[in-house]
From TrEMBL:
Source species, domain of life: Bacteria
Name this protein carries in UniProt: Uncharacterized protein
Amino acid sequence: MANTDKDITLTFNVNKDEELDLILNEVSFDLLTNSNFSINPRSEEMMPMPFVTNDAIIISKKLKI
């Protein structure tokens, strides 16, 4: 979800006899400014790879429900 100021609510049905593995990904685009890391920014000659998530922190959680 692109808007950080809104919540999202998901509603779905699952058969009670089946397991559900839910994978949640959180992406924040503050890798270069986050105080937990010390990463040098790209030089003028460098270009980010197109069509992939660049300069981001990605947190992935797998939930078994």
